[in-house]
Design brief:
Length: about 240
């Protein structure tokens, strides 16, 4: 059986990924600040949720030092971690970003995924099939004005995957996956940002107007097909749109 950990399961792509894994029979532990009552009601046996602010790296470290993760992964044929939780804020040029918001973005987008990856590998030592997917972005591979913090954090995930593959840990596959543009709260946040802070906003307004945003459910299905396929991890940096 697949035993999975999905961060940011409370809405958007993470909710669709958790729902997709549960529908495929996996056990899914979700980590986010908010709960997702619908998933708990539908899958009371397979699903657990832990309230966690991943900007609080001390709280996350304390949870990882406890027994819950190892207990959750015990007995799995396949262990999966999807580092999905992420924030696009702060948007704006250097000088307009703010120390607090930068620290929060780096904690959620980089520190938490790297901490979870390390802890998961340690806690699943007996398992021969372990898969870690970082949810990256095209913004980690191409620079965008107003997104220097977001671009830097997503590039960090890509590089983590590329370097971790070189360690050739037994039974471990890692890849950083750009999912494409998805109709979630994050896109609404982008469209609500003044052009002074995100000069490319009109492009994102047009994507929505022209119906070019993918649904979270469609993206999740394609991402899970790849994640659970034999091909996963062969390329540590992939774009779902060109797979
Ligand atoms: N939407 C797109 O077009 C797009 C494109 C490329 C990449 N991505 C990436 O895809 C991933 C999912 O994005 P989305 O569009 O689904 O975003 P979203 O709708 O804003 O959802 C973000 C998720 O991350 C969680 N999260 C945020 N801050 C957190 C914190 N401090 N602690 C714990 N969890 C936190 C949220 O849970 P809580 O609020 O409950 O904590 C929520 O479940 C992100 O990594 C994003 O960068 C999205």
């Amino acid at each position: 059986m697949i035993h999975a950990v999905v961060t940011g399961h409370s809405r958007g792509l993470g909710h669709a990924l958790a729902a997709g894994l549960l529908a495929r029979g996996a056990r899914v532990l979700g980590l986010a600040r908010h709960t997702q009552p619908g998933l708990l009601a539908t899958y009371p046996e397979q699903h657990r949720q832990v309230a966690m602010d991943m900007a609080d790296t001390a709280a996350l470290a304390a949870w990882l030092a406890g027994p819950e993760l190892q207990q959750w992964l015990a007995g799995a044929d396949t262990v999966v971690l999807i580092n999905n939780a992420g924030v696009v804020q702060p948007m704006g040029a250097p000088g307009r970003q703010g120390s607090q918001a930068i620290a929060q973005a780096v904690a959620v987008n980089v520190a938490a995924p790297l901490m979870l990856s390390d802890a998961l590998v340690q806690a699943s030592r007996g398992c021969a099939d372990r898969r870690i997917a970082h949810i990256s972005s095209g913004a980690g591979r191409n620079p965008y004005p107003g997104w220097s913090v977001y671009c830097a954090t997503k590039a960090a995930l890509d590089m983590h995957a590329r370097a971790a593959v070189l360690d050739a840990v037994a039974g471990l596959r890692v890849a950083s996956v750009a999912p494409g543009v998805i109709d979630t709260a994050m896109q609404a946040d982008i469209r609500a940002t003044p052009e002074a802070d995100f000069p490319l906003r009109a492009r994102f307004d047009a994507l929505q107007r022209e119906g070019q945003l993918a649904t979270p459910a469609d993206v999740a299905e394609r991402l899970l097909d790849h994640l659970l396929s034999p091909a996963f991890g062969a390329d540590p940096v992939v774009d779902l749109r060109t797979l």
